[in-house]
Amino acid sequence: MMRLIFILLFTGAFVQAQTLIEDSEISENSEEFVRVAISYELDHPTEYYRLKCSSPVYARFTGGESAFKQNISKQMKGFLDTGLYTVNGTFELILFIGKNGSLQRFQLKPEVTNGHLLERDVELALRNMNPSWTPATCNGIPVDSRIRQKINFRTDSFDL
Q1: Which residues contact 39 (CB under 8 A, 6 or more apart)?
Q2: First to last CA, the chain
Q3: 133: how many CB neighbours lie within 10 A of its CB?
Q4: Residue 91's closest CA among 148, 143, 11, 14?
Q5: 74 backbone dihedrals φ, ψ, rounded to 5°
Q6: What pTM did the predictor assign?
Q7: What is the pLDDT of residue 30?
Q8: Can you say how many angstroms the Cα of residue 108 is from the centroid of all Cα atoms in its chain?
Q9: Cα–Cα distance measured from residue 31 to residue 27, given in angstroms and rounded to the nearest whole number
Q10: Maximum distance among all alpha carbons in the chain?
Q11: 12-26 pLDDT, tens per residue?
């Protein structure tokens, strides 16, 4: 009789240990590590909107076009947030330069879904850049002007 009780207790312990698990109850404890990088190209020349006068002189960045591109590239590396958005394609950055040579405002075209985050980061980069421009003149009188720079963005993601 003692053997029968011992065998029943021994087999009863294993019956509880074996349960059926559904596939939906299994969760993996793995995390995906992905690194996102936003790269951009400023290979397009800076374009100036035509001034309607007999002797126009267009606005110039202190140090020239190459200094402008180096400066904005350096600032954008620090301010573009790779965790909030992905951006692909060619965008136009239109800068509005005032009569005193200061950056008045900018536009980023085309407008995209959740583009306000990208615009915010570009605005921070431009503010931190503290651009100094020689204002455009028409017949020797300073005037407001616009400058367009095309930027080709590409978002790449890498598995770690």
Answers
A1: 153, 154, 155, 156
A2: 62
A3: 19
A4: 148
A5: -60, -45
A6: 0.72
A7: 47
A8: 12
A9: 11
A10: 118
A11: 665 555 555 555 555
